[in-house]
């Protein structure tokens, strides 16, 4: 088993006033050669956007972009004709492919919106751009793994152009789970603790810590307090 630990307070920190972003991997003005990616997981940004502010229309291409709101509502618009509100409990995915233009704004007039922005390098280039958004059932992650993303269009959750699986769990204190990798030969798992404290294969993690694990088939998970944890299983080799 191989691991890499990213404590919460070692992440890149960008505070623009209206936007406060924590970067697990190099992004924009945060450039850390030792933190370029975890396999095909390229970006994990923990963003807080002030009320009535946001990201104006901007382009993307050849990237799978996943947004997971943690608090508040996010308004999305794009050049594919989508105008949607993404709320806590939703997950959004865009396959940028040949190119998209979109904007994201805090839809709350009186409080910040907090969300994860995740980029995964796809296994296909120049695909037709695509948008999808679903609402997750909170009960499906209570003391069990809830698959929220996969490579398969007909599976649970959203799907992307990559052999990746995301799972979410909300664990009560002292609860245990086992995560069996879908492709242990090629994939690793980046674990991100959203809330609380947990131990993964004996490694203690606290809120907003990240742990990358590979060359392993199974993860043993224990909640040291009430905890919410995101598991991102991705190929370790770049395409």
UniProtKB/TrEMBL annotation:
Cofactor note: Binds 1 Fe cation per subunit.
Extent of the signal sequence: none
Gene Ontology molecular function, alphabetical: metal ion binding
CDD domains found in the cross-reference section: cupin_Yhhw_N
Cofactor dependency: Fe cation
Pfam families linked: Pirin, Pirin_C_2
Matches recorded under InterPro entries: Pirin (IPR012093), Pirin_N_dom (IPR003829), Quercetinase_C (IPR041602), RmlC-like_jellyroll (IPR014710), RmlC_Cupin_sf (IPR011051)
SUPFAM superfamilies to which the protein is assigned, alphabetical: RmlC-like cupins
Domain Quercetin 2,3-dioxygenase C-terminal cupin: 148-234
Keywords associated with the record: Iron, Metal-binding
Pirin N-terminal domain location: 13-120
Binding-site residues, Fe cation: 58, 60, 102, 104
Family: Belongs to the pirin family.
PANTHER family per UniProt: QUERCETIN 2,3-DIOXYGENASE (PTHR43212)
Protein name: Pirin family protein
Record organism: Pricia antarctica
């Amino acid at each position: 088993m191989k691991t890499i630990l990213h404590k919460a307070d070692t992440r890149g920190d960008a505070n623009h006033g209206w936007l406060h972003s924590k970067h697990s991997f190099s992004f924009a003005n945060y450039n850390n050669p030792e933190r370029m990616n975890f396999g095909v997981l390229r970006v994990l940004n923990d963003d807080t956007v002030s009320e009535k502010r946001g990201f104006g229309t901007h382009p993307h291409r050849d990237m799978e972009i996943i947004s997971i709101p943690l608090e508040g509502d996010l308004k999305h618009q794009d050049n594919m004709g989508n105008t949607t509100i993404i709320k806590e409990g939703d997950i959004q995915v865009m396959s940028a492919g040949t190119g998209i233009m979109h904007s994201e704004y805090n839809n709350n007039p009186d409080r910040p919106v907090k969300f994860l922005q995740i980029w995964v390098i796809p296994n296909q280039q120049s695909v037709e751009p695509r948008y999808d958004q679903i609402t997750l059932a909170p009960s499906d992650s209570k003391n069990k793994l809830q698959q929220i993303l996969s490579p398969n269009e007909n599976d649970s959750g959203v799907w992307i152009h990559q052999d990746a699986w995301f799972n979410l769990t909300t664990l009560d204190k002292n609860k245990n789970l086992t995560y069996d990798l879908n492709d242990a030969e090629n994939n690793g798992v980046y674990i991100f603790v959203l809330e609380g404290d947990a131990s993964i294969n004996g490694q203690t993690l606290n809120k907003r810590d990240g742990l990358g694990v590979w060359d392993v088939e199974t993860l043993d998970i224990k909640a040291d307090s009430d905890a919410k944890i995101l598991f991102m299983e991705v190929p370790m080799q770049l395409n």
